[in-house]
Amino acid sequence: MKSKHSLTSVLWNVLLITFGAFVYAAGAEAILVHHNFIIGGIYGTGLLIYYETNLFSPGIWYFLLNIPLLITGWIFLSKRFFFYSLYGVCALSLFAELLTLNFMINDQLYAAIAGGAICGVGAGINLRSRGSSGGLDIIAIILNQKFNFGVGKFFMLYNAALFAFMLTQYQPDIVIASIILTFISSVSLEHVLAMFNQRKIVYILSDNYEELVDAITHDLHLGATLIEARGAYSGKRKQMLMTITNNLQLKRLEEKVFTIDPDALFIVENSFNVIGSNFGKRKMY
Question: pTM here?
Answer without folding.
Answer: 0.74
